[in-house]
Amino acid sequence: MTNFLWVALGGALGASARYGVGLLLINFSNLFPFATLIVNIAGSFLLAWLFAVQYAAPAAEQQLWLFLGVGVLGAFTTFSTFSLDLVLLLQHGDWLKATLYALLNVFGCLGAVLLALWIKI
């Protein structure tokens, strides 16, 4: 149960940070979705950095990963997780899985958005 609390606390902070970035860039939102772009790139960088630090120091606390990686960055952007998963597949030489994963994520998500708009959820 403690692990769920770490994730929940981190998630609250990550979601709040995501909202804050949107507020900071609200004046530019009509030009381009800068907030989403910045959040996705920053989240991808931070999750990969955290993963590398955790990998280099395997004795690091699981709660730190749950709080920062799953909670904060997971709520900040899930694109960061997608990006890390994709790069790890590529690093392991799983080109077919990586390609399939990328295509399914991009086109699956776009398809889901189009479907939701079509049926007006």
TrEMBL record:
<feature type="binding site">
    <location>
        <position position="77"/>
    </location>
    <ligand>
        <name>Na(+)</name>
    </ligand>
</feature>
<dbReference type="GO" id="GO:0140114">
    <property type="term" value="P:cellular detoxification of fluoride"/>
</dbReference>
<dbReference type="GO" id="GO:0062054">
    <property type="term" value="F:fluoride channel activity"/>
</dbReference>
<keyword id="KW-0407">Ion channel</keyword>
<keyword id="KW-0406">Ion transport</keyword>
<feature type="transmembrane region" description="Helical">
    <location>
        <begin position="30"/>
        <end position="52"/>
    </location>
</feature>
<keyword id="KW-1133">Transmembrane helix</keyword>
<feature type="transmembrane region" description="Helical">
    <location>
        <begin position="100"/>
        <end position="119"/>
    </location>
</feature>
<dbReference type="Pfam" id="PF02537">
    <property type="entry name" value="CRCB"/>
</dbReference>
<comment type="similarity">
    <text>Belongs to the fluoride channel Fluc/FEX (TC 1.A.43) family.</text>
</comment>
<keyword id="KW-0915">Sodium</keyword>
<dbReference type="GO" id="GO:0046872">
    <property type="term" value="F:metal ion binding"/>
</dbReference>
<keyword id="KW-0813">Transport</keyword>
<feature type="binding site">
    <location>
        <position position="74"/>
    </location>
    <ligand>
        <name>Na(+)</name>
    </ligand>
</feature>
<keyword id="KW-1003">Cell membrane</keyword>
<keyword id="KW-0812">Transmembrane</keyword>
<dbReference type="GO" id="GO:0005886">
    <property type="term" value="C:plasma membrane"/>
</dbReference>
<protein>
    <recommendedName>
        <fullName>Fluoride-specific ion channel FluC</fullName>
    </recommendedName>
</protein>
<dbReference type="InterPro" id="IPR003691">
    <property type="entry name" value="FluC"/>
</dbReference>
<keyword id="KW-0472">Membrane</keyword>
<keyword id="KW-0997">Cell inner membrane</keyword>
<comment type="function">
    <text>Fluoride-specific ion channel. Important for reducing fluoride concentration in the cell, thus reducing its toxicity.</text>
</comment>
<keyword id="KW-0479">Metal-binding</keyword>
<feature type="transmembrane region" description="Helical">
    <location>
        <begin position="64"/>
        <end position="88"/>
    </location>
</feature>
